[in-house]
Amino acid sequence: MTSTPSITITRLDLQRLEKLLDGLEEYGPAAQALEQELARAQVVGHDEVPPGVVTMNSRVHCRDDNSGKEYHLTLVYPQEAGAEGTVSILAPVGCALLGLSVGQHIDWPTPSGKPLRLTLLDVEYQPEAAGEYRR
Predict the structure, then answer these.
(1) Is 58 exposed, middle or buried (0-12, 13-18, 19+ CB in 10 A)?
(2) What is the rounded (10 degree) CA torsion for 22, 123, 83, 68?
(3) Which residues form the Transcription elongation factor GreA/GreB C-terminal domain (predicted)?
(4) What is the pTM of this model?
């Protein structure tokens, strides 16, 4: 990733994601990237996270600034990925979305090497803002 905006995550998400990483059979580049994101994040309580921040199970609206194409994605744990509109936290874009605030963007190299710039337009649903902490 060439651009690393500041990110915020909840203590509960941190605990769950650390448990996920500890339980992986294969610890590859995706797990390493997630571990780096967790290490640099500002950690707050679930009742302290602003509503415009991407947390686990958040539904987001973002735009590929290169193509102008817009996406509505839900950031999920790997076992919940696969349904239309979901992106795993272990996918490069999923990992990069975690902790972003509305208006921030990420630069991410695609497998072809072409950089992808995603701008977070809106957090349409955030469990913490909805009072749903058991997810």
Answers:
(1) buried
(2) -120
(3) 51-125
(4) 0.89
Q: How open is the CA angle 17-11-19, to the nearest 5 degrees?
A: 25
- The DSSP call for residue 53 is B
User: Mind listing the pLDDT tens digit for each residue in 94-107?
Assistant: 988 999 999 999 88
Alpha carbon 26 to chain centroid distance? 20
Confidence bin at 2 (pLDDT 50/70/90): very low
The domain locations on the chain are 8-125
- pLDDT tens digits for range 66-92: 899 999 999 999 999 999 999 999 988
Rounded-to-integer distance, Cα 44 and Cα 41, Å: 9
In whole angstroms, what is the distance from residue 13 CA to residue 57 CA?
A: 10
